[in-house]
Amino acid sequence: MRTKINNITLNYEVSGQGQPIILLHGNGEDHRIFDVLTKQLSENKFNVYAIDSRGHGKSTQIDELSYLLMADDIVKFIKINQIEKPILYGFSDGGIIGLLIACHYSTLLSKLIISGANSNPKALIWYWQVWFRIHYFFTRSAKTKLMMREPNITKNELNKIEIPTLILAGEKDIVKETDTRFIADNIKNGELRILPNENHSSYVAHSPKLYEVIKDFLK
Predict the structure, then answer these.
(1) Structural domain boundaries in the chain
(2) Do 78 and 98 meet the contact criterion of CB atoms below 8 Å apart?
(3) Angle formed by the axes of helices 142-149 and 126-139, to 10°?
(4) pTM: predicted TM-score of the whole model, two decimal places
(5) Which of 12, 42, 43, 176 is most buried per CB count within 10 Å?
(6) Mean pLDDT score of the chain, rounded to an integer?
């Protein structure tokens, strides 16, 4: 399905019936990484909205990206589709978008789950920062440029989040554990889980593991 928002087209898929939940993928991916999770949620009484962020998948391809604008896309998507108090799960870039929505629109969501999200570009493990600089030098990719410049989420912004929030990261994530803990420590109703032996996406992309991790929180 497709919808017009902020002068672009967002591509998305809807499945299941019940409590609404929005799924947001990471940088350079699309909603298809949630194929397994979507099926599990749909079978367990959730109405799933899996969205391609702007510049990704079958949504409008553009030359400049910002997390605030991507967050505004999702806010408008929720309002246009009259989705009442959805849960939002965001992976990596999707988690950053979720944090921005939760801190700027405090009553829009019922719960937030993020995994592998960072508060600033320097929160990534150093060799990933080097890799992104090299990649951008050769490709001039808007997606890589985004990760090099954003986000810049402050302690004060995190303090504004009041909804129950589950913060996940892999033990071998590309995000420094200190930053994951910084995010969790500054969200009033934050719950932190560092997953042993998992990397940034091993428990997320096309994986049945994520549902087992989040199912109790979803209740």
Answers:
(1) 2-119+153-218
(2) no
(3) 140
(4) 0.97
(5) 12
(6) 97
- What is the amino acid identity at position 144? T
Residue ranges, the chain, pLDDT below 70: none
CATH 3.40.50.1820 fits 2-119+153-218, yes or no: yes
The predicted structure's pLDDT at residue 118: 98
Cβ contact 13:50 at 8 Å: yes
Instruction: Look up residue 29 and give its two tokens.
Output: 């991916």
Instruction: Give the model's pLDDT for residue 210.
Output: 98
CA angle 130, 135, 138 (to 5 degrees): 130
**pLDDT score at 172:** 98
Instruction: Determine the Cα angle at 30 with ends 116 and 42, to 5°.
Output: 85
Q: Would you list the DSSP string of the chain?
A: -EEEETTEEEEEEEE-SSEEEEEE--TT--GGGGHHHHHHHHTTTEEEEEEPPTTSTTSPP-S---HHHHHHHHHHHHHHTT--S-EEEEETHHHHHHHHHHHH-TTT-SEEEEES--SSGGGB-HHHHHHHHHHHHHH--HHHHHHHH-----HHHHHT--S-EEEEEEEE-SB-HHHHHHHHHTSTTEEEEEEEEEESSTTTTT-SHHHHHHHHHH-
